[in-house]
Design goal:
Blueprint lengths: L2 H20 L5 H24 L10 H14 L8 H23 L4 H21 L9 E2 L6 E3 L2 E4 L4 H23 L2 H11 L1 H6 L4 H27 L1 E2 L6 H14 L5 H17 L2 H4 L6 H15 L4 H9 L34
Antiparallel strand pairs: 1-4, 2-3
GO molecular function: branched-chain amino acid transmembrane transporter activity
GO cellular component, one term: plasma membrane
Membrane topology: Multi-pass membrane protein
Length: 354
Amino acid sequence: MSTSKLSRHGLPLVCVLALAAFAWSGSDYYTGLAMKIMIYGLFALSLQLLVGGVGLVSLGHAAFFGLGAYAAALLSPEAQAGSLWLLLPAAVLCAGLYALVTGALVLRTRGIYFIMVTLAFAQMAYYVMHDTKLGGGSDGIYLYFRPELSLGGWLPFDLSDNTTFYFFVLACLCLAWILLALVRRSPFGAALAGIRTNEQRMRAAGYSTYPYKLAAYVLAGMLAGLAGFLYALKDGFVTPELMAWEQSGLVLLMVILGGLARQGGAVLGAAGLVLLQELFQSQEVFGAFARHWHLSLGLAIIVLVAWLPDGLIGLARRRVRPPADTAAAPAPAAAPRGATDPAQPLPVSGDSHA
C-alpha cells in the first residue's frame, strides 16, 4: 500500500479502532471527553464542508447546532423516553429547514456581508431561545431521558447505557465522514470545488452556482443539527449559549486549526482544541493560573497556527510521508543551447487563455 493510500484510509481506520477501544477505559471522565471530541468533530466536519469545500465562511453555524439540541429537548416527553426514530429526524430536519430558509437569503450576499448576515440570523435564533419561555430562558431545558431505539417493542440498543451511547456517537461520526467523502468524490462535490476555486468561471461554463451552494449549506446545517442532537443527549440539558456567536467562532477555529484542505483536519482540530481547553483548565497542571486559561489557550493557538500553516492535518501528513531521497538520482546534465527538453510541452502559439 502506498503512503498516500495509507494516510487516506489507514489513519482514519486506526483512529476509529482506537476510539472504539477507548470505550472500555473504565473512566467516565475520559469517555465523556472522547464523546465531546467526537460530537465537536462532527460539528466541525459540517462547517468544513462550507469553509473548505465551498469557500463560505459562516459565523452563524452554531444556530443549527443549537436548533438540533433544542429539538431533542423540546420534543422529548418529560415522564418517559421518546422514540429515536422520531426525535433524530425531527432534530435534523429542524436544523435543515432553518438552513434552507436562511440560506436562501444569505447566499445572495458575498464576502464580509455573508459573514455578517449569517451572524445576524444566528443571533436572532439565540435571542428567541434566550428571551422567551420556548427555550427556557437563560436556564435552558433539561432532558431527563435519552430516546429509545425500539423495533416493534424490542430494544436492540439501550442509549441510556453510556457505553452504548458512546458507540452510537462514534457510528454517527463515521457515517457523516463517509457521507462527506462520497459527496467530495461525486460530480456535486466537483462542482463545489469549482465554485470555491473560481465561481465566475463556473458560471461562464454554464453552471448555476446558487443551487449548489444552497444544497451544501442545507447539508451542513443538517449535520450540525445532528451534532447538536447528540450533544443534548450527552449532557442532558440545553442552554441558549449553544447558539451564541462564541460557539460559531469556536467551531470555525477548530476547522482552521485542523486544516482547511483535508476532511480529517476538522476532526483533528476539534480534538486539539478540546484537549487544549481541558489542559489549560487543569489546576493540577497550571495551579492558580488555570483561572486565566483563555489567555493560555489564545497564545497556544497563535503559536500553532503560525507554526503549522496547513493545520494539524499538515503535520500528520508530514509524519507519514517519507523524506525524499535527493542523493539517489544524479542531477541532470545541462542541455545544450537550443535543445528541447522532451519532458516539457512544446510552446503553443496563439491566445494562452483559450
